[in-house]
Amino acid sequence: DAHQLRRELQGMHGASYGRYKSLTGAWRFDGFTLQVQRVQPDPYAPASRVQVTVDAEHAGLPAELWSTPVRARALAGYLVRALHRQLGKSRLRVDAGGQQVLDRSSCQIRDGAVRVRMGIDMPGRGRTIDGRAAEDTLCDALPEAVETALRWSVADQQRAREFVDSVEDTHALRAALDELGLVAFVADGAILPRRSGIDERPLSGGVPFSSPESMRVTVRLPHRGEISGMGVPEGITLIVGGGFHGKSTLLRALEQGVYDHVPGDGRELVVARDDTVKIRSEDGRRVHRVDVSPFVSHLPTGADTRDFSTDNASGSTSQAAAITEAVEAGAGVLLVDEDTAATNLMIRDARMQALVAKDAEPLTPFVDLIRPLHATHGVSTVLVMGGSGDYMDVADQVLMLDAYRARDVTGRARELSAAQPTGRRSEAEGYPPLHHRVVEPRCIPTERPKIRARGTDALSIGESTVELRGVEQIVDPSQVTGIGLMLVSCARRGVLDGERSINEVLQVLAADIAERGAEAVDEKFVGDFAVPRPLEVAAALNRLRVLQVRDLRSR
Ligand code: ADP
Ligand code: MG
What we know:
Blueprint: H1 2-12, E1 25-28, E2 33-38, E3 48-55, H2 56-59, H3 69-87, E4 92-93, E5 107-110, E6 113-120, E7 124-125, E8 128-129, H4 131-150, H5 157-180, E9 182-187, E10 194-196, E11 199-202, E12 216-221, E13 225-233, E14 236-240, H6 247-256, E15 270-272, E16 276-279, E17 287-290, E18 308-310, H7 315-329, E19 333-337, H8 343-346, H9 350-355, H10 370-377, E20 380-384, E21 397-402, E22 405-408, H11 410-419, E23 437-439, E24 451-454, E25 458-461, E26 464-467, H12 477-492, H13 502-516, H14 534-543, E27 549-551
Parallel strand pairs: 14-20, 14-21, 16-19, 19-20
Antiparallel strand pairs: 1-2, 2-3, 3-6, 4-6, 5-6, 7-8, 9-13, 9-15, 10-11, 12-13, 17-18, 21-22, 23-27, 24-25, 25-26
Helix pairs in contact: 1-4, 3-4, 3-5, 7-14, 12-14, 13-14
The site of adenosine-5'-diphosphate has 14 residues, from α6.
């Protein structure tokens, strides 16, 4: 038990570092169990891992706060943040996360227990054990932090309830979108801008969002009751406005609207449908056997663009591939920002059509495919485009940002479309049927390769590295680890076998996550990870340099 652990650590003081290993196993404390899961072999190795399990009833946590998967995730998100604050400068580290309330391995509430996983650099002096410091951390700081953060009687109960209710409201709001015929919703009063590119907290003094009356929708939420805001309908939505007027900030908030944000974030009531995917150009990426023919045909190299591969895509082909891959994976909403899009894939105006004949231009611009994509495949698009008026002809609604204020300018845009025709001809004859691909299962290692996240920029799986900089909806390094684990466990458990298309594989993953949560990602991994969206798993899969696929046509 705890006293025994104390004596062990005292006895180890000054011994060689390797003896720490003997601590592996379970130690019974007053009110919780400490499990030493993995001990580092030396002071410079990755941190050791410990797990604390507290009986939820013993901790006094009201059952109604963890009665559903959403509430359990929210309460875990609250508790892990409280614990993080309590651990402060101690050697124990817990993956509490940032502004998003993700399902993470560091804190799980299931089967009536709170389970917290932490990392600890076991203290040493050179290569000998510093038993006193270890005793301070594990036998004093840890129980104190657990008692303060995880025990209901001393918790800030009102804040905990508000946290859980807020996340549940966000979740309910997102779930209501479908029925309302919306792809996204931005509540009145929401704060969209962030402090900086590296500080995700809300910008103080940011202008609160206010919805144009014509797009205002009210929704009743379980806890907050009736709220109002801007509903973004299905179809094509164009966001225009002068530079620096807040267009990208709005789109970025929609991108992140697939996640639930912590109270006080400003985006608690900004949501987008679960199947929303941000598209961007990403030159240099690998593209493997993707049908980019809707956008790219007769390349000067003579390559078949229905089955297109390259190790070094251009801006336009990378974006064409991203669109095809997203739709194949099951995206129902695409988000595109002019700032990160390839201009030549977005527009081709009448003058350019006149100067460069169609048979000398491999690209068909998105402006001619955006409507067919919706008509044929039901895929909506929200597009920021302040630099070209050609999209006015194809938009269902046009939103203008004017000094951060949103205005509905659809009527005016219609008038201009009629009064000033662009003179351009459409270059597309509809959007062709999708090609579904199957993954060659053997291209993904199954023997528990080393999985490592490099921030949110890259993932390494064994020897291979996946660049994820272009996957902008990844917000947390723990998601990157989750993606890696999920890809490997997918291959290991045979999910990729049996000629399942990528789309079908993702459906299996989604169902598995819905049923088992973090366990669906990995059951044995003792490090930190967060449960990723299947769409990001697909994005990583598509960027894997070792990916091999077959087109289902050749089945
Ligand atoms: P655009 O894409 O229209 O050029 P951005 O979205 O990049 O504009 O915003 C320009 C600047 O204005 C950014 O620094 C952003 O943080 C800030 N900003 C955006 N929205 C708001 C707002 N509602 N209140 C205050 N500042 C904002
Ligand atoms: Mg911008």
